[in-house]
Amino acid sequence: MISRILRILTVLAVIALPLSALAAKEPIYINLAANDPVKVSMALDAGRQYSEKGYPIVIYLNDKAVLLGVQVKSGDVSKEQEAIRQAIATGAMVIICPSCLEDYGFTRNNLVQGVMVGAEH
What we know:
Radius of gyration: 20 Å
CATH class: Alpha Beta
CATH architecture: 3-Layer(aba) Sandwich
Strand order of the largest sheet: 1-2-3-4
Largest sheet: 4 strands, parallel
Helix content: 40-55%
Shape: elongated
Number of strands: 4
Distance between the termini: 60 Å
Strand content: 5-15%
C-alpha cells in the first residue's frame, strides 16, 4: 500500500515539475539608451505593465540613459527618474553600463539606490 502511494506521488511529481517550469515567466529586458522623456516613459510603462502581470523586469541603462540612474545634486527628480526608482521599489533589476557611467563623469557613488553597475567590458 505504501509503495503504491509512493509510486503515485512520484508520477504526480514528474508530471507537476514540467508544468511548473512552463508557468515560470521569462524576464522582460528593457534596454534604454536615450533619456528622451517620451521614449523612456513608453518603455518603463510597458515594463510596469509586464511587472504587474508577474514578469521579472531587467532594465539596462546605457549611453544617455545613464543619466536616469544617477542622483541629481539639485534634488530635482524627473518623471523618468522617479519611474526608475519606482521600478526598483517594485522589484525590477536596474543595471547601468560602467563605461557609459564613466563617459558622463559619474562613479558608483553617484548611483540612485538600487541601481547596479554592470560587468566591465
